[in-house]
Amino acid sequence: MRSFIEKGVQAVLAHPAVKQALECVLPFRLWIIVPVHIVLFGLSYGVSMALVEESPLAGAGLDRFLLTFPALVLIRLAVFWWHDLYQGLWRYASYQDLLNIIRATVISTVLFVGIGIFWSPLRIPERQAILDLVLCIVFSGGIRFSVRYLRERFSQALPPKAVKNILLVGPLSKIEPLVKEFAGDPASRYKPHSIVDPTRNVLPYRIRVHDVPVLSVSQVLTRKAGLKGLEAVVLCWPEATRKEMDSVVEDLKALHLPFKTIPAVEDILSDRVSINDIRDVEIEDLLERPPVKVEMDRISESLKGKSILVTGGAGSIGSELCRQIAGFHPGRLVIVERSENSLYDFERELRDSYPGVPLHASISSINDGSGLFNIMKDLEVEVVFHAAAYKHVPLMEAAPVESAYNNVLGTYNVSEAAIRAGVKRFVMISTDKAVNPANVMGVTKRIAEMIIQSNNGFHPTRFMVVRFGNVLGSAGSVIPIFKKQILQGKPVTVTHPDIERFFMTIPEAVQLVLQAGCMGKGGEIFILDMGSPMKILNLAEKLITLSGKRPYEDIDIRFTGLRPGEKMYEELLQSCERNIETPHPRILAAVSEPPSKDFIERQVEEIRDLVARHDQEGLMKKFRELVPGYMAQACEEKRISQSTQSP
User: Fold this and answer.
1) Quick check: 288 and 446 in contact, CB under 8 A?
2) Whether residue 347 is found in the same domain as residue 405
């Protein structure tokens, strides 16, 4: 019975709502800190009374203490609270904390004495008031600085442990508290060896911060011999632009050390993260593109309280769509996914991260049209984001039937189910490989775009497409492949020295998808501005450099030749499309004449018949018929050969 009660109490206390309520009433630390302050106030007041009164704390003296002290405690506790003196961590006690203690003690003493002037029972001698003020400052400040002193002495007395010597890079104003934090953390796995301030070209001779030498970039490069034992370069500059970060990496790559980065100073000092939460610098950190700005209010208005369905909801793009949508408090989030394990893991993640969002996880295929219709109808779905698709180019090149079945017929099934269920808005995720496609995956996505375009205007549902390029970190992206090769010490494989791709991070792409989705009137193909294309070769060289290795020396780069269906570069507009600006600077709209609904219906039926008969040759012929820009692989290889032979 007792264990049952204990489990019940634990379950209640672990509930998020109960935890939040308890945190709002009084954080755990305050249950210790407030009583400690009451004791300190009692000591200062009692000692001051004992030194001033002739018969201290006995008889009439004790009566006066019991009458006046509660009033002083209430005033002092309130004033100390107002000055945030219960929030700071004593192990980081500083000069600013001492100033706040002096200010709070003076104000509370003046208030208490002022009340005593107008109400005689609380009146105390002036000498006692002054003495109490001084003692309160000594006791309240002393306990804080004692904790800091003992913690620092304890960390110095610990036996030496295996630590990594690191070079900290960033403005001194950001690095100074980090150095102090490293020095005061006995469990830290890292030790600052030197500091580089890239914002200063000239530094005073032999400047040090907490006994750690500060150098300029040029001094570091000329003193490489004196920097032996360093194991990593840690970037401590969260506010840096991507161009500044890239410049630092370029300047310090001669050290041949891996590059790391650290959370913001404010997050470390507030205990939201640990000083040891150092991670690798990712290629995303170096993309030279301004951060995405979206209209949060407009997006919230389009999603809040709505029933929203995401196909491919546990995939790279679909899962990020679900995460960001959940943050806008939808009425219901429906995740359609056919991978059982992926859906199971992702549903648990979402329930933990967004406990207040109603979730419905469905193991379903986009080729089950009637099943999709039932889900949309029963759950009153208002918005659909269609992210499910086959996307691996070489695999689809060898399996055109499966590609057509999933990317073409699957898209048709989802769109028809949405029309029948009365969905208000439908957003399809497309790819730049659909533009003048050179592979099966791209041509099937282009036909899927045509299906979505043909639907608009015939039904209340507003259909739109969002087209963008490669996303960093998605399944099948080159980044994880390159990282694995570098980690294993193997050569990094690039298909061609001149191959280029547009890149965007998954969160960036999804933010712009949500922005485009709330802007669309119906029939648009929105194109995300992904900046300038990036050479895959440059990407590989940068990743090798970030790992602390030298391209072509420590890690070689080998060229393997274009894979089946792979293009040298991607485009974002068809030759028959013209782009127009939208209210958002990072989103364009492609305008073209949509195919008729009757035409698409006939073509879909023919594709369905070819898929049912597994007629690959017939499918390839149909692809070329529907998408005149579809180039055979031989044509692409011929074009590459001609470009490499030209002077």
Assistant:
1) no
2) yes
Q: Where does residue 58 fall: left (phi above 0), alpha (psi -120 to 50 degrees), or beta otherwise?
A: beta
pLDDT in tens, 421-475: 999 999 999 998 888 898 999 999 999 999 999 998 778 999 999 998 777 766 6
Q: How far apart, in Å, are the Cα atoms of 520 and each of 295, 429, 508, 587? A: 14, 14, 19, 11
- Angle, CA of 245, 210 and 161, to the nearest 5°: 85
Q: Are 404 and 610 in contact (CB under 8 A)?
A: yes
Q: Domain span at residue 184?
A: 164-281
Residue 167, strand partner residues: 194, 233
Residue 496 pLDDT greater than 80, yes or no: yes
Residue count of the chain, please give it: 647
In a domain, 16, yes or no: no
The answer to whether residue 414 sits within a structural domain is: yes
Q: Tell me: do 577 and 438 sit in the same domain.
A: yes
The residue-averaged pLDDT of 337-341 equals 94
- pTM equals 0.66
| Six token digits for residue 373 | 């219709």
Torsions phi, psi for 210 (to 5 deg): 50, 45
C-beta separation of 297 from 323 below 8 A: no
Pick from 127, 155, 183: which residue ends a domain? 155
Work out the average pLDDT over 258-266.
Answer: 75
b/e for 90-101, b at 16 or more Cβ within 10 A?
Answer: ebbbeeebeebb
- Tokens 């192990």 correspond to 91
DSSP lists the bridge partners of residue 535 as: 500
Catalogue the active-site residues.
433
Q: How many CB atoms are located within 10 Å of the residue 278 CB?
A: 18
Q: How much is the pLDDT for 626?
A: 93
**d(Cα 349, Cα 13) in Å, to the nearest integer?**
21
In a domain, 92, yes or no: yes
